[in-house]
Amino acid sequence: MVFWRYLKNILPLFLGAGMFVFLFFPAITHAENIDSFHVVAKMRNDGTVWVSEEIAYNFGNLVRHGIFRTIQLTSEDGPRILIALTSILDEAQQPYAFTDESSARSVRWKIGDPNSTISGKKTYWLNYDVSNVIRHFDDHDEWYWNATGNEWEVPIYASDITVELPQGASVANAQAVCFAGVSGSKESECTVERTDVGFHITSLRSFQLGEGLTIAVSIPPGIVSGYAVDLPEPAQNILSFFRDFDSIFDFEIIVDFAIFVFIVFFFIFSIFRKSKVRIVIPKKLKGMPITVSYEPPEGLTPPDIGTIIDRSMDPRDMAPVLIDLAMKGYIKINYKGAKSFEFIKMRSGADLKHPAQVRIYQVLFGKEKGATPSPDKKKWWSFLVSSSVSRERVSLRALSRETSRVPGIFRSLKTEMSHYLKKQGFITKPLGVWFGQPIIYVSAFILLFIGISVESYFFVGIGFVIALITPFVRGPELLSKKGIEAFKKILGFKEYLSMVEADRLRLLNAPALKPEMFERYLPFAMIFKVEKEWAQKFEAIPLVPPQWMEGSLGTFSAVAFAGSLSSMNSSFSSAFSSASSSGGSGGGSSGGGSGGGGGGSW
């Protein structure tokens, strides 16, 4: 009873305080706001983008000096960008006084005069150029941009962005999507309107703290030239380490760091550079003549061959597995045109044994009861795949979104394929894994010790990067004697698939081409990127459209059919090779992409 009387006495006090906070706290907290945030952007053919931000800032009755604007130079799903400020202007288009407080992580402009104060409504025009921002994909180029930023300290009542496409880009062939809300939100509470030269994108609601507007504009490839360069993850880690020491940078350190970055950049890109088909020929076979082979080595599937030729499972090795599964009756491929594909489940995959077939079937339709257990049960991502809902069909677009959320799928499949081929006796583990890495670590420690002793950041940096990237960099695995023999036949089989000269084929006494050979060897031709050459052999041979593919094929032609599968190959491979999620492919979100940041008053 005593407690109740005490509670009854203080309850009105709490209710009154609550009503006061409810009624007046929002006004106190958001006494200032951004009335409108209008952006104009012009994409250029050299890969740069000119951006103009018109920020109508309302200080209310508060007395301030001005505002500050921060834009991030790095992001989780975008390249490191460069920003060059051209001007900061007021309502009369006169320059504002400002202080540049930028760092290695972001640009920050503190706008206003510390010796004078302002209040009420003010407009700020920020004009700057952005470079290293247009990303290149197999079927499109993309500008993925956080237009307003999600880190403003005040609400934004209205926001929009007008984007002008580069010269030569047709609005009809371009696409734009937008995302509004908190970081990570995929809600499209915004409108996209086509204009004569691009797009006008408008948010349908105001933004509270932590919310913003993000866009992604896609254009056909080949129009812009200066594509963004994404550093591999080890290099990003190195740069992040050094960004934490902005305060100690002086001229000597900057020079040492520039030399160090150049060496690291060259070294990492020499390892991770991409090529169409990088065949690592064993020393024993270099210089030896190639004997043409008219069939693949016995027992080797397309992903087996793709892994053997460069000792690694690559994204291009995965799409041919789809064709193989389709020809064996496990799936059907529905071609809807314009690089749009759908995969339909035809039979259970519980009897599949090959790791690549098992894994890709699970990615498509989920794991079934009785399916072959995964060789990597302890992998964190296997739970995500095995617990996914079983389904009967899935589109390539939906698949791209899902694989972007499970980044370990492709990496773990590479490990599975390596173990599988080792058990088959085709490859052996490189000696460098056992002996090379300890030696490298000792060398890195010596360089670190020397660098600290002589106070040289250059040696410290070299030692640090060597220790950092060693776990990620491994030399190509070695072929066994059995693997080398298979490699000979693989080279000969590739030679046969890529030959289109009829006279040369007759001289080699090549077997007569039969219609069924086209489908049987097509997945292998895709592995070598010679599917078009293989299809040309069958242009004069009547072919029946395959039962495992349906849709808008039109008049059946071997070359056109191979071109459609090549399109699927690149699209399916991109779903697994993209290290980050693309806005244009449907995997974007508010707060994603480059740019962003925020600001407030001071």
Question: How do the strands of the widest beta sheet line up side by side?
Answer: 4-7-2-1-11-14-13
State which percent range the strand residues make up.
Answer: 15-25%
What is the number of helical segments per DSSP (H or I, 4+ residues)? 17
Mean pLDDT, to the nearest integer, reads 76
Question: Can you tag this structure with a few keywords?
Answer:
alpha+beta; 23 strands; 602 residues; 7-stranded mixed β-sheet; single chain
Q: Care to describe what's here?
A:
The chain is α+β, with helices and mostly antiparallel strands and 602 residues long. It is built from 17 helices and 23 strands. It has helices spanning 2-29, 233-243, 251-272, 302-310, 319-327, 355-365, 380-386, 396-405, 408-423, 431-453, 457-469, 481-498, 502-507, 515-527, 531-536, 558-577, 583-587, and strands spanning 33-43, 49-58, 66-72, 82-89, 98-100, 106-112, 121-131, 134-136, 141-146, 151-152, 159-164, 175-182, 190-194, 198-203, 211-219, 331-337, 340-345, 393-395, 427-428, 478-479, 549-551, 594-595, 598-601. A 7-stranded mixed β-sheet has the order 4-7-2-1-11-14-13, with no helix packed on it. The protein has a 5-stranded mixed β-sheet with strand order 5-6-3-23-10, with no helix packed on it. Strands 8, 9, 12, 15 and 22 form a 5-stranded mixed β-sheet that branches. Helix 3 runs parallel beside helix 11, helix 5 packs antiparallel against helix 14 (515-527) and helix 10 (431-453) runs antiparallel to helix 11 (457-469). Residues 1-30, 232-251, 272-277, 371-389 and 578-582 have low confidence and may be disordered.
